[in-house]
Amino acid sequence: MGKPRVPARALPKWPRQRNRTFTGCWTCRSRKVKCSEEKPVCSVCQRLGLACGGYGPKLVWVEDDNLPYKSDGRRTMLCGSTWKPYEVLDSELVDFLIDHCDEEASSGYKSSRGFQVSSRTVPVEVNPFTVFRVGDIHTYRPSSGRQTPSSSPSQSRSPLLSLSPSPNNLIYDFDRSAAEKHLFHHYVNHVALLMMPFEHSRNPWRLSYPAVALHRSSPGQRALYNALLAHSAFHLSQLSVNKQPMSVLAVKHYNRTIRLLMESIGHRDSHYAETVAAIMTLLMAETYSGQSRRWRHHLNGAWSLLQQTQTQGLKPWLESDFACFSTQSLYIIRVIDRTATTVSDGLDEPLSSVDCEDIFNRPSTQETSFSSAIRATPGFGFTIGATKSIIEAISKITLAAHQLQRQHAGVSLDVDLMSILSNLRDTERMLETESQDLDILLPMKDGPVQQAHVYHQLKAFIHAAHIYLYRVIFDLPPRNLQWHISQALQHASAFSGSDRLGKTNDNFSLWPAFIAAVEAYSDEDMLLARSWLDYALSFGLGSRLLIKKVVEEVWMRRKDVATDLAADPGVVSVDWREVMRDLDVVVLLI
Prior knowledge:
Elements lengths: L25 H6 L11 H6 L42 H15 L3 E2 L5 E2 L35 H4 L2 H4 L15 H17 L13 H6 L5 H20 L4 H24 L5 H18 L4 H18 L9 H18 L26 H11 L12 H18 L7 H21 L14 H25 L9 H21 L7 H8 L5 H14 L6 H23 L10 H7 L8
Antiparallel strand pairs: 1-2
Helix pairs in contact: 6-8, 8-9, 8-10, 9-10, 10-11, 10-12, 11-12, 12-14, 14-15, 14-16, 15-16, 16-17, 16-18, 17-18, 17-19, 18-19
């Protein structure tokens, strides 16, 4: 018996296969009919007597939201941000800019601790692809040195005011040698990551600095570009990778940066942000190379430029995010540098009346206002893994210490101490309450390792600030500070231990670990300190060899004195600042 026949009507009726295309005219596409695609007009529209919409792209120009056009939710572009005024970019540069734009777009997350991190991050100010992002657009605009004193923060940082239609502002001369490309790649993917204690989506050395440097249309931008290459080459030379050739390249770009900086500073339209960024990059290049003293000349030069803006009534840190980060970095490095000085170091010469951080004399109201304005900028302190309160406390301790050394301590000293302790308690409360003020510190990746790194950084800074306070103000011996010493070193050890497990290559900030290490005297704490030193030396930073030398010299002197006096090493105080001076070592504790 054969198989029963299935009635035709019982078979499923499959829809006819169609190959959908998007090449028809706009009229046929809106009618959802097949277009014959003849040009300039299709025969379908002609046969029906319809106006053929053609095949070109449809653009809707929106100006000041005055038109009735309503966005359908797609990305929009500001009229002043179109590609028309700009030159065609090299494909390598396009890939670089797109990659970092995409990085930022995917960096927002909800942390496991409940911190809400905004998806809006500091953009690459000169990245043209950032105009396709929904949200605020802060386009980098070099300062011409003509900012009016009355400019408000909202005006000077307005996205619309910061847009520059001039094609001369975006000139990409990207004809680079293979060596320069190698150095630039190493800077972006390695050196820039070491500039912060943890990987972060707002790392200005990985985003803003390379993007501004790639312009190379002004002496300041070219100086920054060569400074980045010098920084990268010095780091490679410390890693013993072709040490001699890399040292030659580093010196070449270093000298070229100096010449360009002289040209930029002497230029009528000198750009503050670019010039300061280039100087600060040279400073870090000197630090990475292991040079002991020359970096301080760069610090003084950059600070002088900032002082000049104050005498003119300007606030250059409000010009752009790039200028803001550069000024924050300058201020923080100056605060950290001053912790290693005493009034006998030759730094107590008369300073300018506009020095906003004169730690040898009590600052004036104008100077205090200037410092407060910089500290009040968004995210101040996050690049070093600290908070505004911690940096402010460290600065106040140094000020009080130098006043005591010059016998200028007055009735207000107790008030200053209360203020310092209040600053440190503020950060403690932030950690206890998981304050949203700490959101800025959270790295770009949500995970236990990244969360732990933020916690260990802050706790180490708090304990180190207490150690610094009691040592330089009250001259308490290490035994009275053992709890703070142990806690700071344990947090540094926990940071490095979780870093090895998580394989993140995060770089613990130098200052808190060093402050605790030089005061360590027990076997347990010295073991933790040695472990941290080994970890710190693994990053190829030349200055850290000098740090190890200072720490071990302090330990040796403490042991010798304790042996001579038959005393507990914990009661022997050794001033590490005097040890640095005796060794003729000047190290930046960053």
